[in-house]
């Protein structure tokens, strides 16, 4: 083999080695539950019972033996209107919990709602209807119409996730947002939650199976999940912008050297 052939082979081997080194990635950083072994049984937390908050919109239905007597109680105080959202969800008519924590219910007037569970509110309305002798043996059912969480940051489809089932965990929310991108920090996901008059900020590690036992595994309405970008993305963006001219110059130099070698 002549000298030019050996030189070209050496250059190709060097380039191939550099490509292999650049492609080495620790997959444990992008995997969920990398500490879980086969057939592992993990006790998870039970789902949270939603608590009514200010600005919630509730659907409240009343039924009894007399259909005519219940009609007046099934007229919501908030008309249906469209909601501007990423998934074009429409707002169904319901009862708005005002800033004072009350709803305005037909005939019964203002009823406290904020801070109660759905079951507690249903029992209170039922008792009021019975005490005032407005209905006999009424049945009251309620639902959240605006149960939603927001997922932002390094996910494929950031935005608002509406939850008709009134229960969602952090993995389901991220799944609805299209999963994390390869640059998202799975070991440092930020949860922002409103608690009374303060904001709770909690950092969660999705690489660990302990998240399944965390009290923050299940999300509450109006929670915000933010996925931070890793250093790799920040570095890749800044390095690409700063070193692109250098890289192009280097490639040009390599092409010139290879051309000269093959001419020898």
Topology (elements, then pairings):
Elements: H1 3-22, E1 57-63, H2 67-70, E2 81-82, E3 90-91, E4 95-96, E5 102-105, E6 109-112, H3 118-131, E7 139-144, E8 148-153, E9 159-162, E10 168-169, H4 170-176, E11 184-195, E12 198-204, E13 218-219, E14 224-229, H5 231-263
Parallel strand pairs: 8-14
Antiparallel strand pairs: 1-4, 1-7, 2-3, 5-6, 8-9, 10-13, 11-12, 11-14
Helix pairs in contact: 1-5
Structure write-up:
This protein is an alpha+beta fold. The chain has 3 domains: about 5-25 and about 230-264, no CATH class; about 30-45 and about 145-230, Outer membrane lipoprotein wza domain like (Outer membrane lipoprotein wza fold like), CATH 3.10.560.10; about 55-145, wza like fold (2-Layer Sandwich), CATH 3.30.1950. The chain is built from 5 helices and 14 strands. The strands form 5 sheets. Strands 9-8-14-11-12 form a 5-stranded mixed sheet. A 3-stranded antiparallel sheet has the order 4-1-7, covered by helices on one side. A two-stranded antiparallel sheet has the order 2-3. Helix 1 runs antiparallel to helix 5. The longest helix has about 35 residues, at about 230-264.
